[in-house]
Amino acid sequence: MSYRHKELANIKWFAIIDSVLVTQCYVKKEITQMKVLMFNQAGQEKQLTLDSFTFSGGEEHVRFNPEQFVDVVKIEIFERLTSSSHTIRLMMMVDALRRMVGPKVPMELVIPYFPYARQDRVCVEGEALGVAVMADIINSLSFDKVTIWDAHSDVTPALINNVINVPQLTLLKQCSDLTKILAVGGLTLVSPDAGASKKTMKIAEAFSNKSEVFQAQKVRDLKTGKIIKTQIDDDVAGKDILIADDICDGGRTFIELAKVLKQNGAKKITLFITHGIFSKGLDVFDGLIDVIYTTDSIRAKQEFEQTKTVQLNIIEM
Question: For residue 242, is pLDDT > 50?
Answer without folding.
Answer: yes
